[in-house]
Amino acid sequence: MSETTEQRFTDEERAAMKERANEAKAARRGSRGKADVEAEVLAKIAEMEPADRAMAERVHAIVRAGAPELTPKLWYGMPSYARNGKIICFFQPAAKFKSRYATLGFNDEAALDDGTMWPTSFALTALTAADEQRIGDLVRRAVS
């Protein structure tokens, strides 16, 4: 007996895929400006559970300050930051996939290369001043 898509993906994963499909449709329509897209990101952050929301707000502020050339956008329903339409980094709230921690992730467009192996995802349970400094450094390096 083969597995169906319904059996292979969790409810959360299916919801994320639907969000991505809707984001792609909206982008193809092209009717939204940068301010509208950023407002959508901020609205999505505002919907998050308190701990995720606090971290997402800080990450958003850090990314906007450290790499103002990146465009905020939604990606699978998560706040992300792109250059030339390609996602550089994203914030995945813990509640999205019922995880014990949020994730700050960097895609392959990020210039974080360091030898033959380097981290591209970071677990976040809280943000200290040192964590915020490190995120700012990573974001600036990612767009260099």
From TrEMBL:
The organism's taxonomy opens as: Bacteria, Bacillati, Actinomycetota, Actinomycetes, Micromonosporales
Annotated region (Disordered) at 1-35
Q: Where does the YdhG-like domain lie? A: 53-142
Gene3D superfamilies cross-referenced by the UniProt entry: 3.90.1150.200
Q: Which InterPro entries does the protein's record reference?
A: YdhG-like
Q: Name it.
A: DUF1801 domain-containing protein
Q: Which organism is it from?
A: Actinoplanes aureus
**Which domain of life, per UniProt?**
Bacteria
Composition-biased stretches, type Basic and acidic residues, lie in 1-26
